[in-house]
Amino acid sequence: MASLDLAALREAVHDPAQVKTRAIDLHANAHDASHFLLIPQAVVTAGSAAEVGGLLRASAAQGVPLTFRSGGTSLSGQSVTDGVLVDVRRNFRDIEVLDDGARVRVQPGVTVRALNARLARYGRKFGPDPASEAACTIGGVVANNSSGMNCGTVDNTYRTMESLTVVLPSGTVIDTGAADADQKLRALEPELYEGLAKLAERVRKNPDSVARIRQQFSMKNTMGYGLNSLLDFNNPVDIMAHLIVGSEGTLGFVAEAVFRTIPRLQHAAAGLLVFPDLEAANAALPALVQTGAATIELMDALSLKVGQALKGTPAVVKDLAVRDHAALLVEYSAGSAEQLAELHGTGEGILPGLGLSAPARFTGDARERGQLWQLRKGLYASVAGARPQGTTALLEDIVVPVPVLGRTCRELIRLFDKYSYSNSVIFGHAKDGNVHFMLTDGFATAGELDRYSAFTEDMVDLVLAEGGSLKAEHGTGRVMAPYVRRQYGDELYDVMRSIKQLFDPAAMLNPGVLMDEDPLAHLRHIKTAPPVAEEVDRCVSCGYCEPVCPSKDITLTPRQRIVTLRAIESARLAGDMALVKELEKDYDYESVDTCAVDGMCQTACPVDINTGSLVKRLRKDDAGPLANGAWNAAAKHWEGVTRGASLALTVVDKLPAAVIAPPNKAARAVLGKDTVPLYSAELPGGGSVRKRPTPAGTVDAVYFPACVGTMFGPAGARTAEAGQDAQGQDAQGQGVQGPGVQYSFEQLCARAGLKLLVPEGIDGLCCGTPWSSKGMAAGQSTMREKTLAALREATRDGELPIVCDASSCTEGLRQAVESDTPKPGQRALQMVDAVDFVADRILSGLPSHGKLESLALHPTCSSTRMGINDALSAVAGAVAERVEVPENWGCCAFAGDRGMLHPELTASATAKQAAEVADMGATAHASCNRTCELGMTRATGSQYRHVLELLEEVTR
């Protein structure tokens, strides 16, 4: 490979800093979701189609390979390279809805979930429905011709795509939807234009080629190039556009695409049908398809055995004595309840004739449907998460004609036994003849690679003998590139080689992907996963965590934090201490300092990893005895600490910013940015003490006001009383504090006739989150013991519920309570968030009242993790006529004091949400956690308050 000229790459982009070559940038970005690993020479964050064109030209001129990466969820090695890696995830996120939702123009960095969220208001959705929809992006969807559980070959990417704006390897940009697109392609790329026309003619004149293409693309098929485009379209520009679909980044870059959308069906019913064996399940497929089933998912006997151990598994599986059984998860969907009843009624009508092993029924209940889908979707997580340390999970997919699916699955199981691959579950989209299976192994030693090679050869023979395709959904990638010729034959393989030559004569765009003459290419560059930390060793690098991570656009994502640790350990094992030093030099800031430890990654992770737990432990390991001692002393004297912080903020609030800034910045320079917070103007004065007199009579709940209410005073009041405006400022523009959430919650409870008891010594108590997030173990233990003892006394040993008024503190208290093992005869302590408490105990009894016109609502990471966002929305709905949660909502990353230590983190995390909030023009803004309110106030310039403060005001 030619040496890289970084200057040429930097000239191709607006800011030279977009080209990164630090060791941590290269290794953190090297990994996608596949089992392959190559380390790029440079990582470039492209900002526009013009920049991509310049990068393509620079790459070709140097003879250095170039590969595009967006979501990085591909499983076949499509987005790894040892050349130039171009990141198109951070930018290219625009969505333009057309024709009232019937069509949509979208850029490659948009996730499928984000696109569907935008389309939902129009009653429409994106056609492809890949299982990775939370993280996979439109760029990868187009590159892999994605489909999914429901769409089959009817609504996949190829069928729903109308036009593309593509940047060709030469740098030429073509919008294939433009009226003059065909003429423009002929004028600017004459060799490509004429070559595509000649290839189409060549294929059409060969009956064998036509027959093979029609047969191959009658089923799901992402093996090789989409040769069906040579038959389906006449104009070279349309052929080109559809060849780009499924080309895996080897022919050009898709800067945006226009798709037709499909109706979003709101009603669904599902049922699990258990059969005596695979053949019986296979035999039932035609009848089930005939009933109009939208989805039919297959699970083999091993899948059912694995599923029996999953939490919430339905009794029909949990109580089954599994032998050779197989199951089909069948779901019907419709636009109305009446249509749905008719569909699943037809389905239930054929059940008696299917020879089921257990009774079955269809249910529209959301909870029951969720359990069924958790069984299906939990298989991958269960097997991958339980694999031995240091091994890799390899997820494959194949497709065969539906009539031979059962026989093929049985032969696959025989191959698993032959090659001693245990826990190789088979599951997938039975309606399409498409199944997935998993292999777990080290794939490192000669013996392991020989075994994998022999298995692959037998598997290839099996699938091709049945008239199937070696890749249905996951793309050819590197894993099946050596087998494309075997599947299509010499003639069509030569057509594919000609296509590549026409588009990319320098062969610099993603080489080694989709076609490879090396018969052993799939055995090279397989990554290893050395054990690094118990909290994260089960990570499969899927990337599902990345869209919800607040640091994704500024430093590292959870996946990148983990793979960088693995890179450090791999370098250490290899004796490359220079690389270890280079990676560790930047790891603290990129990974530890700028992690919000918000736990949102865990909500998206299929193997239940909370990378924040790892970061907390790393902070704990780094914390010296001096810091630990200081924080332990703070835990013992927390009342004084919080009152001191309150007093300091009150004093600072009265001083001009010009007086505060210089010493504050000097202290940060001397003591460190991760030690001294940066003051900013939106910070309020200090708050008040939390203690309250003990009420007389029967108490309904123990109230634990969060200590952030003492340190940070309340936001400005909404009402214009006493000369205040809607943002809580007086006529001179000075902040005027509102009553705060403690007062508001107490008032709401008093009106409802509910008595609250605030624990004795509350001003010295805390949930413990400040200590756990910083890794200060001694102080955390001290505070936990103090707080739990006080709560046990206040609740009469668990008799009363405990209510907290800040969601992150509620979560912290829950974790403290869960760590408390009740003594014999003791009850477990019960933690409830104030929002949940109000929704459950107060909301229905509120008198009729006026509402605000609109409310911008910010759920928090803790409200999401605790599952109380429905309650939050219900309370918000009692405050305003229209409640809007931004589509770009996410963790604000203020994270206690993290947003003050590293304000750049919060700025990055909230940038897109803040722009969306500004466009809303909402009457008021609310959340359910004081520090998150501060973060969103800083981000948007609008005053965020606790939703219970607003509820108390509108119901006075």
Structure description:
There is one protein chain. By secondary structure, the protein is α/β, with parallel strands linked by helices. It is built from 39 helices and 25 strands. The strands form 6 sheets. It has a 6-stranded antiparallel β-sheet with strand order 12-14-13-16-17-15, with helices on both faces. A 5-stranded antiparallel β-sheet has the order 5-6-10-8-9. Helix 17 (405-418) runs antiparallel to helix 18. The radius of gyration is 30 Å and the shape is globular. The model is unreliable at 718-735 (pLDDT under 50).
The shape is globular
Strand order of the largest sheet: 12-14-13-16-17-15
Count every beta strand, where a strand is a DSSP E run of 2 or more residues. Answer: 25
| Major pleated sheet | 6 strands, antiparallel
Q: N- to C-terminal separation?
A: 73 Å
Helix content: 40-55%
Structural class: alpha/beta
